[in-house]
Amino acid sequence: MHVSKSEEEASERPAPPRRTQAERRSRTRAALLESAARGLSRYGYGNLTLEQVAADAGYTRGALYHQFSGKEDLALAVVKWVAATWEHEVWEPAHRETNDPVTLLAALARGHMAYCRRDNARVIMALRVEFAGREHPVGETIERILAGNARRFAALITAGRESGAIEPGPPADTLAGAALAAMEGIAIKVAGDVPNDEVIAERAMLGIIGVAPSYATRPAD
Description:
221 residues
């Protein structure tokens, strides 16, 4: 039987290394988290079914239970995962871009809108409404995450006041809460309307803290 040169070369190439068990487990977990995040964003916690999450990720329900003990454990993992990706994709890049508090707040507003263009990013908003006024580990975890972000935004507003860029006015924590609420509302209404979502969010942020838009505005494309 004749073997072509290309076949000979292919047979001589080393086989790609097999993934380790830890790598396979990590890949499975990531796929399940993404699937669950989409489901929670679209249908909420009460209507989420583990069978559908597993099927949408390309796995069996048994594979899901190998990673998570149940729906609550899965939802908690999703909330923490979304918070971690927000840190990586919004908070950290904005801080690499600038140290100026006002420019930083504007960058965070733009970055948050870009992040919220994905269904996954709306998990926090959807679950916060669903668990409002209820004692539940998922809702309590979300409130802790949001409270931490509010404190960090308030610290930036305080720093802007200390530098003279932000005028005195309502307490920093009040402004921070208002800014985060505005970002949430804008994301629900216009996220995905590129580039208007970023422009509107930035203007809202600067308006809330009492700074003229020309201070940090980046022109729309």
